Amino acid sequence: MRIFTTYFLPLIAIYLADVSNWLWLTAFMWFVTISLGEAIAFHRYWSHRTFEFKHWIIRDLFTFFGAIGGVGGPIRWVSTHRLHHKDAETIGETHKWLITESAGKRVYRDTITPFNKILHKYYYEFLYLWLLILLLIDYNIFLYGGILPIAVHISLNLIFPNLDHVIGTKRYPNSVGRNSHIVNFFTFGEGWHNNHHNNPGKISNSEAWYEIDISGFIVKLVKSN
Ligand SMILES: [Zn+2]
Ligand SMILES: [Zn+2]
Question: I want to staple 189 with a disulfide (CB 3.0 to 4.6 A). Which of 61, 148, 215, 221 is the partner?
Fold first, then answer.
């Protein structure tokens, strides 16, 4: 299902499309799903609880942005990610190729909300309803704002969780993960992964002026106090 959504749907949709100047919308949705959705809601909020949202509506809106990226809901994401931190600290950099069997299976109590439960139980129904709504509005919005962003988002998710343990530098030699401008460019602040593994409880991963973290900056706007 995921491979179909990621690669075949975009190809069919591009084949059927006759307008190609909507790529700005794909770029915008890339930012919305990766930064607001995955980096802020799924990662820094649901996985590490580095802050509290001003209001639950903003929390669920950002969670929605993560879910329309095509990588599932936060319950599964958090389960995989907490395992990632646990294994990275005990096994080391090679853990990525050792885990995934049990990844995503555990349901953490602190991730259970009515909206997260719907995303967990009916994820593909949710995703296809979202795409259907976009399709009914406009074909170009469906293609460039729905289908292509999913392709971009899932592709980045296949590449970067591995790459950010391979390319880049280490500020903290005793911690796993790498700091990389390349990874950071594509992930809006998630490229300072060595800083993150050294201290996962921080709102911003930036520890120097040249380490830009757009997601960390946005968190400061939406967090309470
Ligand atoms: Zn990592
Ligand atoms: Zn993390």
Answer: 215
How far is ligand 1, taken at its centre, from the CA of residue 21, in Å?
A: 36
**Three-point CA angle 29, 34, 40, nearest 5°:** 125
Minimum-distance ligand to the CA of 46?
2
**CA angle, 206 as apex, 86 and 174 as ends, to 5°?**
40
- What's the pLDDT tens digit per position in 171-195? 999 999 999 999 999 999 999 999 9
Ligand 1 geometric centre to CA of 144 (Å): 30
CA of 171 to the centre of ligand 1 (A): 14
Q: Which residue has the tokens 């975009």?
A: 10
Q: Are 178 and 165 in contact (CB under 8 A)?
A: yes
- pLDDT tens digits for range 205-216: 999 999 999 999
